[in-house]
Amino acid sequence: MNFSLILATLALAIGSFMNVLDSTIVNVTLTHIAGDFAVSPNQGTWIITSYAVSEAIFLPLVGWMTKRIGVVRQYIWGTLLFTVASMLCGMSFSFSFLLFARVLQGVVGASMIPLSQTLMMTLYPKEKRGMAMGIWSITVIVAPVLGPVIGGFITDNISWRWCFYINLPIGIISSFLVYTIFKKRGYTEKTENLPVDIVGLLLLTLGVGCLQVLLDKGNDLDWFSNNYIRILAVCSFMSIVILIIWEWYHDNPVVNVRLFLNRNFLIGAVTLTLATIAFFSVNIVLPLWLQNYMGYTAFKSGTTTATSGILVLFIAPVLGSQLHRFDSRKVIIFGFVLYSVVSIGMSRMSPDVTPSYIALTRFMSGAALGFFFVPLNTITLSDIKDTDMASASGLFNFMRNIGTSFGTSLSISYWDHRISQHREVLVTGVNSSNPSLISYLNTASGTVTSKIASLNHIIDNQSALMGVNDIMVVSGALILVLIPIILLAKRPERVVKAAH
């Protein structure tokens, strides 16, 4: 591997890492930001929603935009503008301006992840693309895990504004290196002056925007009992259905929906979405439980769960470099089974569970993730033409984003539901005929009121823990359901040839 290739790989990796990091790094800063701008915590969550909505809308547009602008040029400008938007976030003088800067971040940064993936595929020969995807996958898997850790440390020790300022050197270095290396290689791009599909653009904006807001706000507004959520659901469903029909027959669609006719791409996209829901459901609920019920600080919670990214650092590049020797489907199935065994097998946590035990469960889950994410990328893009790679990568990452949104929203809602159910069952045991209760009231120190309050606290904690265990079981079971789906995929052509 020559030096310029190493630099290009590093530049693209840190660019995508920076982008993915920004989706989670501010999650632990919301209280500080809301306090600084004197807004409510519920209003503060729009910092996350605004970024997620704008990015989700523009991800499917990546392929269409690259045909007009070019892959390298779009990546460089996207990275530079994302860096400027990050600076504006850090300099925000009002909450409204911060929201504007976050929307700008999502709009200009949406192309960074799929285009970094596309450029990695361009840089490496076909026989080494597995290794390229392994290196690229590290950034996408590890960044969301490290986001809360880095965000918590920066916020506690410096200021939430530096969660955005740290992007400045990364963005400048990434864009400069990509520009220099591709210019030296004499890389030229053909662009087309394609007409703008206004109808498709409007339908995409309305459909994806409504869906993302619905998922972000559904749990807070009690889902479909709220008229606002019902309207969003109808608008989203109608817009997306009409969008698919419209783009199917359009000569120059903004979203190439015909890519889903490719069997491996369809199976890969569906599998990625459902696997992301399963993985992120645990990833979201665990830190909330640790901070709200176990008394962990944001930083301690982050470091406890961040172990899921350790093994990925080693598994992803090594597996990627050797993937051409194996049937990717079998590697994915191994990862699925390993994840399910870990998730279901370790779902018996008790109230005295230690940080080291939680860290171990995340460590093992991260190993499983490394085994299925890298080969899943390979299978999904194995039959895609080079001319459609940017479009496919944009749609593939869009499905990952949607999976993250669904996983976040549904897991919190399900957790709340299970907490209520478990609490209801536990409370029925609090009666005068329960000898354990009588023994507790007789031996515990304090007044009757303090004893009852302490008992109520124990029931709350136990209910929350049982809810977390339920989430882990459902997550592991959902992953197992994906095994027959992945078996429907074709083996990547280069693997079949190597086997013969």
Summarize the structure.
With 500 residues, the protein is an all-alpha fold. The protein has 23 helices and no strands.
Labels describing this entry:
Growth Hormone, Chain: A, mainly alpha, about 500 residues, globular, disordered C terminus, about 0% strand, 23 helices
Overview of the structural elements:
- It is built from 23 helices and no strands.
- With 500 residues, it is mostly helical.
- It folds into two domains: 194 residues, MFS general substrate transporter like domains (Growth Hormone, Chain: A); 243 residues, Growth Hormone, Chain: A.
Question: Which helices and strands occur, and which strands form pairs?
Answer:
Elements: H1 3-21, H2 30-36, H3 41-44, H4 46-58, H5 62-69, H6 71-90, H7 95-109, H8 112-123, H9 129-157, H10 162-165, H11 167-184, H12 198-217, H13 227-249, H14 263-292, H15 298-305, H16 310-322, H17 328-345, H18 355-381, H19 389-428, H20 435-443, H21 448-481, H22 483-486, H23 493-499
Radius of gyration over all CA atoms, rounded = 24 Å
The helical percent reads: over 70%
Count of extended strands: 0
Number of domains: 2
* Overall outline: globular
* Residue windows where pLDDT falls under 50 for at least 5 positions: 495-500
How far is the N terminus from the C terminus?
27 Å
CATH top level of the largest domain is Mainly Alpha
What is the CATH topology descriptor of the largest domain?
Growth Hormone, Chain: A
Strand residues, percent: under 5%
- What would you call the structural class? mainly alpha
Tally of individual helices: 23
